[in-house]
Design goal:
alpha/beta, Ubiquitin-like (UB roll), Rossmann fold, 3 domains, nine-stranded mixed β-sheet, three-stranded mixed β-sheet, about 40% helix
Length: about 300
């Protein structure tokens, strides 16, 4: 009987598959397989590397831009300071900005020289003038109620004034003064020019003769009740048939209407003008009916007016 010989290598046929499998496992891998396995292992760390490089490149660029912006702002600030300094120096030293022109508006009562005396002198640098302070100085003139001062480059100062309104002429000590409704003495009548619009005003306001009173200078005050009463009486002169009458003031008796060649009407002070005028008319009508002549009619005290 013949026996089959075992295969070369001493292995049995049943173990052929196992051996081939072991051989395949120990067989060296190809280059492509190695590359694939290496790529799989390296894929995880390679994903974060590009991001880190991008961030690293962005930070220096951002810092450079911030530094450039900061440096530019500093350069601009220095340039502005230098320019401002130059402008201040030029404005303070240049003769172009020295006051050389003055414009005054609204001055009818106050002499121009009186206003100019309150203003900065010619040649003063316009940037050193304080308009509000100059306006207050101008308002110290008695006849000026309000003043506005403005500056116009390069060298002009402008003054606009609102004057007080005269309501009566106060005559004392041979001098005539214009007085407003508050009794404030504004100016001397002699200072009003012939072409002034105030000439028309003076023709329509009463003149109060005060022979017993001292001269009142501008800025001083007279009893405002006397001025108000004189103003009211002047409006009624025609109505009480005394168109040519004059108004006198005596501290002891107050206001008195004087008609040259006729009687005197003592009105006193303290108001009640309408009631006093009515009392005067009543006495005058009585004198006319009785053909009596009086030298004095006194209506200061309404409860006991009298005549003589």
């Amino acid at each position: 009987m013949s026996r089959s010989a075992p295969p070369r290598g001493g292995q049995r046929p049943g173990n052929t598959r196992q051996a081939s499998a072991r051989q395949a496992s120990t067989r060296p891998r190809s280059a492509s397989a190695r590359d694939q396995s290496n790529g799989a292992r390296a894929s995880a760390p390679r994903t974060s590397a590009p991001r880190a490089r991008v961030q690293a490149t962005r930070r220096p660029g951002l810092l450079r831009r911030l530094f450039s912006t900061w440096l530019l702002s500093k350069v601009l600030a220095v340039a502005i300071l230098v320019g401002a300094g130059w402008l201040i120096y030029t404005g303070a030293t240049s003769p172009t900005f020295s006051l050389s022109r003055t414009v005054i508006r609204g001055d009818e009562l106050v002499p121009t020289d009186a206003i100019l005396a309150r203003l900065p002198v010619a040649g003063t640098n316009i940037f050193t003038v304080r308009a509000a302070r100059v306006a207050r100085e101008v308002e110290n003139i008695p006849a000026i109620e309000r003043a506005e001062v403005g500056l116009a480059l390069p060298s002009t100062i402008q003054v606009t004034i609102l004057e007080r309104k005269p309501k009566a002429i106060w005559e004392a000590g041979g001098r005539q003064r214009l007085v407003d409704s508050n009794g404030l003495v504004l100016a001397d009548v002699a200072d009003i020019t012939a072409d002034s619009p105030l000439q028309r005003t003076m023709a329509t306001i009463p003149t109060v003769h005060a022979p017993d009173s001292p001269i009142a200078d501008p800025g001083e005050k007279i009893d405002p009740d006397v001025i108000l009463m004189a103003e009211l009486i002047a409006k009624k002169m025609d109505g009480i048939t005394l168109p040519t009458g004059q108004v006198e003031y005596h501290p002891s008796t107050g206001l008195t209407l004087v008609v040259p060649g006729a009687y005197r009407v003592v009105l006193g002070s303290g108001g009640d003008v309408d009631a006093k005028v009515l009392a005067y008319r009543t006495i005058r009508n009585h004198l006319e009916r009785t053909n009596m002549v009086a030298q004095l009619i006194d209506v200061r005290f309404l409860e006991r007016p009298y005549y003589r």
